[in-house]
Design brief:
heterodimer; A: seven-stranded mixed beta sheet; four-stranded antiparallel beta sheet; 11 strands; 0% helix; B: mainly beta; six-stranded mixed beta sheet; 54% strand; globular
Chain lengths: 117, 112
């Protein structure tokens, strides 16, 4: 399996622009997670989906952030408008509800490094 | 109180020594415990997971779990410079959900 695939790997944009981050989970995984990582705050959970349905979006910082999962193999995280404080590395991870206690294991994509100027 | 607490470090050990990384968690309902390693500029990768009290060994790595004390640790024997990374402790959400609570990580440096 190719693992979790994220695109783009790097994004540089100007303040006020719309940014869209993309994620393809591991085939067969029914959970998908979006995280943001900064030096100051560490790894923060933004939102997660189960079977394409958002379960908990309490980590989404504000209305400028939105996430969708139109099907089992694709999710997007959108920031509109972007601000310099959104600069961070954004990770997507997926997991499977099968496998007993091993179901909690999350597999991470390579991340998208976002810089908002 | 944060769900998962780790010493941020940095922790420095000489090559060949034992590195000990510690983690405490707040919710007794958590069932599964994980250690992820993250190299600088890379994504977290799973290195160990443990569900039962006691020790679990995998090569040079040993995870230890004490549910009564709500404590998880990771021991790295014969530390190598390639072990230099940030180690993230993660704890499952109680109640059966698939999400994890991550600590802020401990940065380990192994000095040749």
């Amino acid at each position: 399996d190719a693992g979790v695939i994220q695109s783009p790997r790097h994004e540089v944009t100007e303040m006020g622009q719309e940014v869209t981050l993309r994620c393809k989970p591991i085939s067969g995984h029914d959970y998908l997670f979006w995280y943001r990582q900064t030096m100051m705050r560490g790894l923060e959970l933004l939102i997660y989906f189960n079977n394409n349905v958002p379960i908990d979006d309490s980590g989404m910082p504000e209305d400028r952030f939105s996430a969708k999962m139109p099907n089992a193999s694709f999710s997007t995280l959108k920031i509109q408008p972007s601000e310099p404080r959104d600069s961070a590395v954004y990770f997507c991870a997926s997991s499977s509800s099968m496998g007993g206690l091993a179901k909690n294991i999350q597999y991470f994509g390579a991340g998208t490094r976002l810089s908002v100027l | 109180q944060k769900e998962v607490e780790q010493n941020s470090g940095p922790l420095s050990v000489p090559e060949g020594a034992i590195a000990s990384l510690n983690c405490t968690y707040s919710d007794r309902g958590s069932q599964s415990f994980f250690w992820y390693r993250q190299y600088s500029g890379k994504s977290p990768e799973l290195i160990m997971f443990i569900y039962s009290n006691g020790d679990k060994e995998d090569g040079r790595f040993t995870a230890q779990l004490n549910k009564a004390s709500q404590y998880v640790s990771l021991l790295i024997r014969d530390s190598q410079p390639s072990d230099s990374a940030t180690y993230l402790c993660a704890v499952s959400s109680p109640g059966g959900a698939n999400n994890l609570f991550f600590g802020t990580g401990t940065r380990l440096t192994v000095i040749p």
